[in-house]
Write the structure tokens for this entry.
Amino acid sequence: MRLPLAPTESREADLTSEGWTKQFSASDPRLSEMVSVFESLGKEVRLETECRDELRGSDCEACLEAHPNGVWAIWTRGPTEDPDSGESEYVRASDSVPTGTRMARGLSVSSVANSKREGSVLVVEIENPPVNIIDSKVISVLIQALDEAEADTSCCAMVISGSGTKGFSAGASIEEHLPDQATGMIGGITDLLERLGNTPLVTLAAVHGICLGGGAEVALACDFVVTSEDSRIGIPEITVGCYPPFAMLQLPSLVGMRRAKQMILTGTPISGQEAADTGLVSKCVRNEDLMRESMEMLAPILSNPPQVVEMALRNLRSLDTLLHTVGHRRMGERFLTDLILHPDYTEGLTAFLEKRDPEWQSDRSNEEEV
């Protein structure tokens, strides 16, 4: 990536004509996280400085050393980029028209997922291009898949994966987190995660590419997670002015409280291999082996008596103290109480959608104000 001087209007016009699309303006620590996400999508990424007004005209490499809060514009270019749309691919993602479904054995999931049966395993593939955003449609379809799979007593396991080359999911819909829709979104995710925690099915998430935010929470709610070497798993909600209520329940028992704090408070994603090394996921495998290794992980489990596996699984899940003393529903309620009227919440989401750097409240709250 080149680090040129602050771009003029003509410079931006040159970049656009060369097929580059401006995605975000960002400053550290958000910058490195967003660059990693776009690179994981196979994009060419370049940085252009956007110094604040009082710094314009000076040499940016020098001024950034003196003024670390300088702002950078992230530009990307790739085979699927649409430079004429004027929108970030991530903004387009949650409003995209989903493709159709390929159904098997009568399972009637539609619109945003593909499904097929492989023996006693139902494989459900999220298909909400371009980056498999978890929105209300996807949540509804996944719950429907659970309903129909549970009703078929010959089905003993469910694998959830993401379609396309970009990844499992870039996260939950930003638009549906805005204050007028947040209650419905949080309620929907709560319902889905509770279902995954109580289903008689053995569940496994097969994760490739990006797996962020709400997408990571869905994956981590499964009994097993297998990642590919190209995967990046992260909880970046803090960078858009909110916190991840459900990952707060999931991470401490998986990686310990200190590592959970690091992942949540920085929002920085980690590689699939690092996730496996820390116990966040079950294993990391070669990209081309993801589905084969996932099915092989389930095979010895499914060779055991199904009813006893179900009883063992129910008891094992009950030992997750945080999930059963606090619970998804209470954490969702806390999220809405804490954030729905907070100015940084609205600012972070709006800044993301408008592709600009957020302007946060500058001071901590006094304790009596919280």
